[in-house]
Structures are given as structure tokens and as C-alpha cells.
Q: What sequence folds into this?
């Protein structure tokens, strides 16, 4: 069974804090890796792809360790608008197509 | 920015009734998907669709479910005889290539009573 595991949180942090989320995945043949953001009762929205070399997008840094099957997301200088659930997502090749496997998400609340 | 649109945003139906959830994927996308999210649970894959046929389906996607692309723009999910446990948020997604990112619609909240 293919699983993506995340710490559910919640993480309650003050504005300006740095916060890190971790994720592990079980399928070593997974092809691509992503962080999505989901606001309450809304659709998942792609935050960033994750590459083995690590990648950064403004205040967000993502890392992938294929050997450990571990993915991380670092948010620096947290803003109130960062409050959301962060979903670790893995793309896997199935028998006929690719499909996304989602973690349950880590809830972040940024407090004034 | 191109969007995936879904209608209705909320559907309430009685157990045993048929429902059709509608989606308009991004116009130049070729790969279409349905996912669902039961309240408080993770987003789960239902089915993928390419070239007018199902590419893959999950265990959830049993005989009660079907998908169709009735014309050049719509992509529908039909649930033949709804059960209470079908209550969930149903998300449509599309992508331009199978390895690329997906764009999700804003979802249809299905409530079976």
C-alpha cells in the first residue's frame, strides 16, 4: 500500500517565525514530488515542486532525499496568510497513468 | 490564469439517487482526473481519463461510478445510486501532460442524506 505520511500538527507559530514540515513516502518508485496548499474547504493548490537538488521560491524552500524517502518544506518569515494545511503529494506511475497520492496534511496557524 | 470549473458547488441528494457532477477542464489539457476528499480525511484518487477512456481507477471507483466526456468541453462523474458514505468533496483536475502539474477545480460538495 502506497502511503504518504505527515505530522498532522497543528503548528501554531507567531508571525515572522520559521517553520518546517516533514513528510515520508513509502513507494521508492515515486516519480515526482510536490507541496500543495489547501485552505479550509477549498481545492488543493500547487505551492511548489520538489527536486533532489533542493529548490527555493521566495520564503519557501523544499528538499527531497530519495535515499531516505523524505521530503521537507521550510517557510521563513511566516505571514498570517500562510495559515493553511500543507499537503505533501507524490506522483506515481500506475498501470495506465500517473496518479497523485496525498498526505493527510499538516495544519499551520500563524498567529499575530 | 486558466481554471478548471466545477458545477454545482454544493449538491444535496437523497440516498439511492443518481448524481452527475460536472467539470470543464482547461481547454488545451488532455488528461483529466477525479479525486475526492471526505471531511477531515486525505484527498483520494478516483479515476484518470485520457483519449476518451479510463486510464486507471482506484478501488473506490466501483460499478456505481462512471465518467464521461460527452462533448469537447465537459467531463462528468456520475454516481448511480448514492450512499451516505459518498458524502465528500469531489475535485476535478486536468493536466497538459501526464508528468506535469495538475490544476484542480474548486470542487463539488456532495451531501447524501
A:
Amino acid at each position: 500500500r502506497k502511503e504518504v505520511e505527515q505530522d498532522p500538527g497543528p503548528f501554531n507559530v507567531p508571525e515572522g517565525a520559521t517553520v518546517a514540515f516533514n513528510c515520508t513516502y513509502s513507494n521508492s518508485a515515486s516519480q515526482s514530488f510536490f507541496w500543495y496548499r489547501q485552505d479550509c474547504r477549498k481545492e488543493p493548490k500547487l505551492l511548489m515542486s520538489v527536486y533532489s537538488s533542493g529548490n527555493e521560491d521566495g520564503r519557501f524552500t523544499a528538499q527531497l532525499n530519495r535515499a531516505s524517502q523524505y521530503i521537507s518544506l521550510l517557510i521563513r518569515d511566516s505571514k498570517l496568510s500562510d495559515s493553511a494545511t500543507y499537503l505533501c503529494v507524490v506522483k506515481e506511475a500506475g498501470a495506465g497513468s500517473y496518479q497523485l497520492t496525498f498526505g493527510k496534511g499538516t495544519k499551520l496557524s500563524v498567529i499575530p | 490564469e486558466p481554471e478548471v470549473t466545477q458545477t454545482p458547488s454544493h449538491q444535496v441528494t437523497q440516498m439511492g439517487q443518481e448524481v452527475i457532477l460536472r467539470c470543464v477542464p482547461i481547454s488545451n489539457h488532455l488528461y483529466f482526473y477525479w479525486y475526492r476528499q471526505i471531511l477531515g480525511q486525505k484527498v483520494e484518487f478516483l479515476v484518470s481519463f485520457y483519449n476518451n477512456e479510463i486510464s486507471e481507477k482506484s478501488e473506490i471507483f466501483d460499478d456505481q461510478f462512471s465518467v464521461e466526456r460527452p462533448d469537447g468541453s465537459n467531463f462528468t462523474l456520475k454516481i448511480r445510486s448514492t450512499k451516505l458514505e459518498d458524502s465528500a468533496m469531489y475535485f476535478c483536475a486536468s493536466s497538459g501532460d501526464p508528468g506535469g502539474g495538475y490544476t484542480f477545480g474548486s470542487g463539488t460538495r456532495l451531501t447524501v442524506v
About this structure: Chain B has a mean pLDDT of 94. The first strand of chain B starts at residue 5 and ends at 7.
